[in-house]
Design goal:
Helices cover 54% and strands 0% of the residues. By secondary structure, it is an all-alpha fold. The longest helix is centred in the first third of the chain and has 28 residues, at 8-35.
Length: 74
C-alpha cells in the first residue's frame, strides 16, 4: 500500500515549519515596533481562532486588539 505524500508525519512537519516561520516573522515585526519606541510583546497561539482571541484578550486584560488579515480581498 502506497503512502500519501501528506501522511501524519508530513502534516506535523508542515505545521511545525509554519509555527517556526510565524514566530520568526512576529519577532521581526516586534523588533521594528520596539525600535520605533513601542511596547511590543508578540504572541502566537494556535487552535480555535475565536477562542484563542478571547482567551488572549482576557489573559492580557486588553483594551484594544489589532488583528491582521491575509490581505486576500475585502
Amino acid at each position: 500500500m502506497e503512502q500519501s505524500p501528506f501522511n501524519m508525519d508530513r502534516v506535523r512537519e508542515v505545521y511545525e515549519t509554519a509555527r517556526i516561520w510565524g514566530h520568526a516573522e512576529l519577532d521581526k515585526w516586534a523588533a521594528q515596533g520596539a525600535a520605533a519606541g513601542l511596547k511590543v510583546r508578540p504572541v502566537l497561539r494556535t487552535r480555535v481562532p475565536h477562542e484563542e482571541i478571547v482567551a488572549l484578550a482576557t489573559d492580557e486584560l486588553a483594551d484594544l486588539l489589532v488583528i491582521g488579515t491575509h490581505g486576500r480581498g475585502a
